[in-house]
């Protein structure tokens, strides 16, 4: 196992799991914080999807932001589920890599940022 003289609290998992000097294991406290953030983000996406009106003829911007909201909600739900399951698995034998939680979570955050930009876009167009 690689040594980490600067921080004795971080322990590296065996190399066959893919961890090494570039990837660290996420402590349970950090995972709980991430799960809490993802839960709030999921609530945001569910409110956003329900508040959208379904019209047959929409502009491409409205359709784009609607799909960004749906994609963000699905990605956030997937990340939240994987993080929740990983929280209860032993760290040594967990089949869930940190990247499996981080990748869909990052997609959800990017979609939330795009929806924030939509709010600026709408404000600019309103009289």
3D architecture notes:
With 127 residues, the protein is mainly α. The chain has helices at residues 28-51, 60-87, 98-125. The longest helix is centred in the middle third of the chain and has 28 residues, at 60-87. The termini are far apart. 17% of the residues are buried. Residues 7-17 have low confidence and may be disordered.
What overall form do the CA principal axes indicate?
A: elongated
- Secondary structural class: mainly alpha
What is Rg?
Answer: 19 Å
Q: Number of helical segments?
A: 3
Largest sheet: none
Oligomer: single chain
Could you name the ranges where pLDDT drops below 50 across 5 or more consecutive residues?
7-17
Helix content: 55-70%
Q: What is the end-to-end distance?
A: 62 Å
In total, how many beta strands?
0
Residues in β-strands, percent: under 5%
